[in-house]
Every structure is written in structure tokens, then in C-alpha cells.
Specification:
about 230 residues; mainly beta; six-stranded antiparallel beta barrel; four-stranded mixed beta sheet; 12 strands
Length: about 230
């Protein structure tokens, strides 16, 4: 049996998530997040997507390319357990795995072919900008929906959500940025903090979303966006 295999990316994703902090923990939690996948040679042949647009959702297989994976561990501390209890890595979706491969189900909005490029427009992705895509498969309800599937140790371990408000000084900014406001709300609502950082004291946070630096504070279960910066 071969001891190793070589793979190449079929394309790369362009997503609104420019850094790890702020990326939703699972796909489709932030449905308003719009992303694109540009296919690259040798997978930019138009025939490769024939029939794809007839499907509403896709499976993406990708590489966790940003974290360093030289030293993986057979057990990890899942955020759902507050980082206080270990589980086997194969019982989690941690990016720190023997092989740094992930999978996400996303919605296919449309396919586009222009100037020799093949671009897939998707929504609900939970991938860092620039993530290499290894494979794309159609989501098929007949086989992919498993009735009575068990949630294992994550049962009743849902992440609490935050209520999100915005400083009055941002009112004029969002007059022409309603879609961005919706995206920011959905991202922060999922509470991007690690569970071990949750507290009742007011804490300040920031992350890059699209081309914006979003600054907000969290106290208890309430988040307030206080500033949006657009670096030059």
C-alpha cells in the first residue's frame, strides 16, 4: 500500500474572512457570506462543471493551509467543551489533524465563465480567504441526509449566540452598506471567541472582514460594534 499521496488544488477560494478569528465554526452558520472559487489549470476546462449548476449545494474538500500542522496530537480540546476536556481528533472537526483536510457544505449561487476563467459563486462558506480547494462534489439529499443520525458528545453543547448592536456613529456608514451590516451581525452573533475566553466583563475584539477592520466589545451575551476602519 502507498504510504503517501500527492494532491493538487483545483482552485482557490476568495472569501470575506481574512483571518482565522471571526470565521464561523461551521459552514452555513453565516448564510450571507458570499465567496467565489476560481478554478485553475488543469481544472479550468469549461466541461468540468457541466451539469453542476443544476445542484443547489456543494461539498468542498479543502486544505487547512494557514495553521502549522507539524505536530498534531491524537486528542484535542474542542471549543464546545470550553477547552477543558479532550476528545479524540477523529471525534472532532479540529483543523489540527493527521492530514489537514476539511470539508464543508455550501450553497451554489451560480457558475460564471468569463475571459477564460471559471468562477463558482457560493454562500455560507467557513473558509479563510485563499484556501486551496482539493475537490468539489454535488450535495445529494438522497444519500447525504442521514435520518436519526446521532450527535455524539456535542449533543446539548450548542454555542450560545450573542445579541448584536451598533454604535449610533455608524448609522451613516451603513446607509449604503446594509449587506455588510447583515454580514457583520451574522458573524458576531455566532460569538467568535474561544469558549475559555467567555466572561461577564467587557472585552474588546477586532477582526478583518472583507476590507474592513471591525471593532466591537462584548459584555455578557451582548456585543456592540463600535468602529469600522478601512485601512488604506
Amino acid at each position: 500500500m502507498p504510504q503517501s499521496y500527492n494532491f493538487f488544488p483545483v482552485g482557490f477560494i476568495k472569501s470575506p474572512y481574512k483571518e482565522k478569528f471571526g470565521i464561523p465554526r461551521q459552514a452555513r452558520l453565516v448564510k450571507s457570506a458570499q465567496s467565489t472559487i476560481e478554478l485553475i489549470s488543469p481544472c479550468n476546462d469549461p466541461s468540468i462543471i457541466k451539469g453542476l449548476e443544476s445542484f443547489s449545494h456543494l461539498w468542498l474538500l479543502f486544505v487547512f493551509h494557514a495553521p502549522k500542522h507539524e505536530n498534531w496530537n491524537p486528542t484535542v480540546r474542542p471549543p464546545r467543551l470550553g477547552g477543558n476536556k479532550r476528545q479524540g481528533v477523529f471525534a472532532t472537526r479540529s483543523p489540527f489533524r493527521p492530514n489537514p483536510i476539511g470539508m464543508s457544505a455550501v450553497k451554489l449561487e451560480k457558475t460564471e465563465q468569463k475571459k477564460g476563467k471559471i468562477i463558482l459563486h457560493i454562500s455560507g462558506a467557513d473558509l479563510l480567504d485563499g484556501t486551496p480547494i482539493l475537490d468539489i462534489k454535488p450535495y445529494i439529499r438522497e444519500s447525504d441526509i442521514i435520518k436519526n443520525a446521532q450527535d455524539g458528545w456535542i449533543k446539548d453543547k450548542k454555542h450560545p449566540q450573542l445579541s448584536v448592536s451598533f454604535s449610533p456613529i455608524l448609522k451613516d456608514f451603513f446607509k449604503e452598506n446594509e449587506e455588510l451590516k447583515k454580514l457583520i451581525t451574522e458573524v458576531i452573533k455566532q460569538d467568535p471567541r474561544p469558549r475559555y475566553q467567555e466572561s461577564d466583563s467587557e472585552e474588546s475584539y477586532a477582526f478583518r472582514l472583507e476590507e474592513h477592520d471591525v471593532h466591537f466589545v462584548i459584555k455578557g451575551k451582548k456585543a456592540n460594534v463600535i468602529e469600522i476602519k478601512n485601512p488604506a
